[in-house]
Amino acid sequence: MTMRKLAGWGLVPIVAAGLFLSCGKQEPAAPAAAGPGQPKHDAAVYVPERPEGRDPTFLAADLTGFAHPADPVEFTKFIHLPPVQQGNTGTCWSFAATSLLESELRRRGQAEVRLSPLHTVYWEYVEKARRFIREKGDSFLGQGSEPDSALARVKQYGIVRDSDYTGLLDGRTAHDHAALFREYRDHLRDLAAKNAWDETAAIVGVRAILDKHLGRPPARIDVDGRSLTPLEYLASLGLTPDDYVSFVSFMYLPFYARGEYRVPDNWWHNSRYLNLPLYEFSLTLLRALRKGYTATLAVDFSEPGYSGASDLAMVPTFDIPPQYIDQSSREYRFANGSSTDDHAVHCVGYLESASPGNWFLIKDSWENAWWGKHKGYFFYQDDYIRLKCLMFMVHKDAVKEVLEKFPASE
Predict the structure, then answer these.
(1) How much is the average pLDDT of 211-223?
(2) What is d(CA 179, CA 176) in angstroms, rounded to the nearest whole number?
(3) Over 90: is that where the pLDDT of 354 sits?
(4) CA geometry: angle 136, 143, 359, nearest 5 deg
């Protein structure tokens, strides 16, 4: 063996050692914290689905250290009545629309009036049953609806004060429509199974169920010594349901045109929604608030960045980084069913901020709005509005310049 060969063989242990070091088992490096100028990454964590829950069952954003408003006093707020809970019902749409009308009265300098959301709910159930019968069962049956439908019922049947009609019987103090809706749905399904499409008889049966669970709405109410029907009372308040317009932002409709909001809760297939590009959709909401108007929103609240315990709604980066929230990413989530119309709320304020962005003060009637520090309120980040707010409704005077972009014939 020559010295050259021996030298060559002498390299083998060194090379082998190098291979072991490069290919052998190594401990992974801990993820580095984002440095200056680098994008922030939100972490996910399992948390209890409800505050009293013990087992972590819900994947949520870890909001530790997340910068956000600390108190409603930081917002530019508009006059509104204190939040009330809808209880175990699917009637957020009426609570949100009713709250909007209460704020509209105050915006116009009128006296504070607590209006009845359950009066509208009663008549919505009636009209939903009427359409089910007329369409021979081919119509959505659910507790949910849309704020614009609530105003359609107000226009049709009027409105009363909450003290005139609470929808609570036998000393109850909280709403629970589980038994009501079960009986209501079963009654209509039974009629469908029997092919019994007599509208008059069906509505008599439906109203008997509603009267049993909610009480019959008053035909007349006493207002300062005057006996008024609900429609006369509506007129006395000067509220005009037709003065409110609803905006959406979807690619399945032409922009600057009207069309149907394709969600189950739009059970009557209203096709008068105004479709805007996403940028203009979110800017129109902000500009309406700047002018002193409030708005109802339809949102998806079954999201990892929606935390009742923290009073926050945001979009974590593990869902989508903020720079990628655009018309297509919003539409993709709606089309694949990951963005759904879950809930209606009342936007009563805003906070403009350069970083991490604008915020919106939300008055909410669902139970998770009472889990945090600020009972009945949420703080929505603008990223959440752009991705997960599917519709908003506001007075037409707040959006005159936008309405001019839609054909006059519509």
Answers:
(1) 98
(2) 8
(3) no
(4) 135
Longest dimension (CA), the chain: 122
Separation of alpha carbons 154 and 167, rounded Å:
16
Average pLDDT score, the chain:
91
Q: Pairing between strand 389-395 and 244-248? A: antiparallel
- Which two structure tokens, joined as six digits, stand for 140? 């959505």
CA–CA distance, 103 with 145 (Å, rounded to integer): 21
pLDDT band at 34 (very low <50, low <70, confident <90, very high): low
- 176: tokens are 């629970």
Digit-coded pLDDT (tens) for 40-86 = 788 988 888 777 776 667 889 999 989 999 999 999 999 999 999 99
Provide the percentage of residues in the chain whose pLDDT is more than 70: 89
Name residues whose C-beta falls within 8 Å of residue 145's C-beta, 6 or more positions apart in sequence. Answer: 91, 93, 94, 124, 128, 265, 267
Q: CA torsion angle for 220, 223, 226, 227 (degrees, to 10)?
A: 0
Q: Please, what's the b/e burial string for 161-175 (b: 16 or more CB within 10 A of its CB; e: otherwise)?
A: bbebbbbbeeeeeeb
Class of domain 75-403 (CATH, top level): alpha beta
Given a contact cutoff of 8 angstroms between Cβ atoms, the answer to whether 203 and 210 are in contact is no
Do the Cβ atoms of 292 and 349 come closer than 8 Å? no
Give tens-digit pLDDT for 148-201: 999 999 999 999 999 999 999 999 999 999 999 999 999 999 999 999 999 999
Pairing of strands 295-299, 343-351: antiparallel
Q: Residue 301 gets which letter from DSSP?
A: -
Helical H runs in 215-303?
230-237, 278-290
Tokens at 126, concatenated: 């009636």
Each domain of the chain, given as residue ranges in start order, spans 75-403
Residue length of the chain: 410
Place of tokens 């009609």: 165
Residues 6+ apart with CB under 8 A from 216: 207, 210
